[in-house]
């Protein structure tokens, strides 16, 4: 960058420092020309801007070079028949014709890189727009019994439920709601996965871990649609599928007395002893 940075500043070895002192080895000041032309990459521009904030001399030089980048960009866009000879003639006094040509080429290449970057970003955005819904469903879908055609066949909660061997089950004699809680000890407490059947909505529910010390912790919560979950004689697959949800509690498994599935209005749907 020093080849271009010297333009308008006196060049290496003749550079005046921020207080009028000679600074032949202080290369950061030589960047002002390249910065004015807009040919620094992002990292270089950021470094120079940090320097510019504290350097009055570079600020003055930048003011003197203001407008160079648009002029060179316009020259770079000229047809081939009006190319480098015209550039050399018009800029012969400052800088030299060969330097002017290099500056024009640099600006043109920088703009071409920006256009290519823009095309890549547009393509990436289009991919996200097209593939985004499917990606989201693959990550989040399935826990609710596959409510959309794109939902993943096996949800993360069901996959964990199938793997875990420590399971506790109960069916409430009044509500007939069936629950199976799969447990997994973690360093932070207990990971619990709930399989829920024979529950109809609309409801909002929670799985609550009740400790042997009487403390209560909400493991997870969810809503039940009108058609419900795990209804054996249901007319749709949505309603036939059980609900799988998971969450965590600070209790260790041996500190839990039982689990409760309760509606938000306080109704106990099923209790599962731990």
Automatic annotation (TrEMBL):
Q: Domain Putative zinc-finger spans what residues?
A: 28-58
Q: Which UniProt keywords apply?
A: Membrane, Transcription, Transcription regulation, Transmembrane, Transmembrane helix
- What InterPro entries is this protein classified in? Anti_sigma_zinc_sf, Znf_put
Q: Which is a Pfam family this sequence falls into?
A: zf-HC2
Residue spans crossing the bilayer: 119-139
Residues of the region (Disordered) are 1-28
Task: Please indicate if the UniProt record lists Amino-acid biosynthesis as a keyword.
Answer: no
Q: Biased composition, Gly residues: where in the chain?
A: 1-14
Recorded protein name is RNA polymerase subunit sigma
Q: Which organism is it from?
A: Streptomyces dengpaensis
């Amino acid at each position: 960058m020093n080849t271009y940075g010297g333009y308008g500043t006196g060049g290496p070895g003749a550079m005046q420092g921020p207080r009028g002192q000679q600074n032949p080895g202080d290369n950061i000041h030589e960047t002002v020309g390249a910065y004015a032309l807009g040919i620094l990459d992002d990292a270089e521009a950021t470094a120079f801007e940090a320097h510019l904030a504290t350097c009055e001399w570079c600020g003055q030089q930048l003011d003197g070079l203001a407008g160079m980048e648009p002029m060179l960009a316009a020259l770079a866009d000229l047809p081939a028949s009006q190319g480098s000879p015209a550039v050399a003639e018009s800029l012969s006094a400052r800088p030299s014709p060969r330097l002017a040509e290099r500056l024009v080429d640099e600006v043109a290449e920088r703009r071409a890189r920006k256009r290519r970057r823009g095309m890549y970003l547009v393509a990436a955005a289009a991919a996200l727009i097209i593939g985004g819904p499917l990606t989201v469903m693959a990550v989040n879908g399935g826990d609710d019994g596959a409510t959309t055609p794109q939902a993943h066949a096996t949800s993360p909660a069901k996959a964990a439920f199938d793997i875990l061997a420590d399971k506790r089950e109960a069916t409430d004699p009044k509500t007939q709601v069936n629950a199976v809680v799969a447990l997994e000890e973690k360093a932070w407490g207990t990971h619990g996965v709930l399989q829920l059947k024979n529950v109809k909505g609309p409801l909002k529910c929670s799985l609550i871990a009740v400790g042997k010390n009487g403390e209560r912790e909400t493991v997870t919560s969810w809503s039940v649609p009108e058609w419900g979950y795990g209804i054996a004689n249901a007319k749709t697959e949505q309603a036939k599928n059980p609900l799988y949800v998971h969450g965590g509690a600070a209790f260790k498994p041996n500190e839990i007395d039982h689990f409760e599935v309760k509606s938000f209005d306080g109704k106990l749907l099923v209790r599962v002893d731990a």
